[in-house]
Design goal:
This protein is an all-alpha fold and 193 residues long. The protein has one domain: Tetracycline Repressor, domain 2. Helix 4 packs antiparallel against helix 5 and helix 8 packs antiparallel against helix 9.
C-alpha cells in the first residue's frame, strides 16, 4: 500500500485521493481507511517507512564501501535516485511542500533528515580522521551541508530537468567534497600573497 501511494503521488501530486491509492493497490478504499484512518494517516505511515528504509539503506551503503568519501556520495545519490524522472519529480516535491505545512508531517521530515545526518556522520568522521578531507568542516556540519546540497539539487533539477538527477547530484556532491580534500587556507598564507 505504501508503494502504491508513492506511485500515485508521483503521478498525481498532492491532489491524490485514497481512492486513487486503493485503485493502484488493487484493494477497496475502505481497506485503506481501516488501515490508515485518513490520507494524513497514510502520509504519516509513508514518512515513517521512509525513515526506516533510509536508515537501513544508508547504513548498508556506507558499510559496504571501503572508501568513506565515495560511500557518502553513493549513499546520498542512491537515496535520491527515485526522483530521477522529470515527470514524477515535480509531483513528489509538490507533496513535500504540502507536508511542510502540516506540523506532524514536518516533524517526521525533521526525523528523516536527522537520520540521514546521523548515518553520514560516522563515514565523514572516518574520512576526516584519515586525513582525506583536511578542508572539511566538522563531520556533523559536513553531513548537514551534503544533505542540504542533495535536497537543493533535487528541487532545482525538478524545475528544469537537464540530464539526469543522478548525474547532477554526483557532480555537485563531488565538487564540494573535492574542495574539502584541499587543506584550508591559513590567514598567514593569505597575508604573504
Amino acid at each position: 500500500m505504501i508503494a502504491a501511494a508513492g506511485a500515485v503521488i508521483g503521478r498525481l501530486g498532492p491532489g491524490f485521493t485514497l481512492a486513487d491509492v486503493a485503485k493502484e493497490a488493487g484493494i477497496a478504499a475502505g481497506t485503506l481507511v481501516q488501515r490508515f484512518g485518513s490520507k494524513h494517516g497514510l502520509l504519516a505511515a509513508m514518512s515513517r517507512a521512509s525513515i526506516e528504509e533510509t536508515r537501513r539503506v544508508l547504513r548498508a551503503a556506507l558499510e559496504e564501501a571501503g572508501d568513506p568519501v565515495e560511500a557518502v556520495t553513493r549513499a546520498l545519490v542512491g537515496r535520491y535516485a527515485a526522483l530521477d524522472d522529470p515527470v514524477t519529480a515535480p509531483n513528489n516535491l509538490a507533496q513535500l511542500s504540502v507536508d511542510l505545512a502540516d506540523e506532524r508531517l514536518r516533524e517526521l521530515m525533521a526525523e528523516y533528515y536527522a537520520v540521514v545526518r546521523e548515518e553520514l556522520e560516522p563515514a565523514l568522521r572516518r574520512a576526516v580522521a584519515a586525513g582525506e578531507l583536511p578542508g572539511a568542516p566538522p563531520p556533523e556540519v559536513a553531513a548537514g551541508i551534503l544533505t542540504a546540497l542533495a535536497d537543493g539539487a533535487a528541487i532545482h533539477w525538478s524545475t528544469r530537468p537537464s540530464g539526469s538527477l543522478v548525474d547532477r547530484l554526483s557532480t555537485d556532491l563531488r565538487a564540494v567534497i573535492e574542495g574539502w580534500r584541499r587543506p584550508p587556507v591559513r590567514e598567514d598564507d593569505v597575508e604573504e600573497r
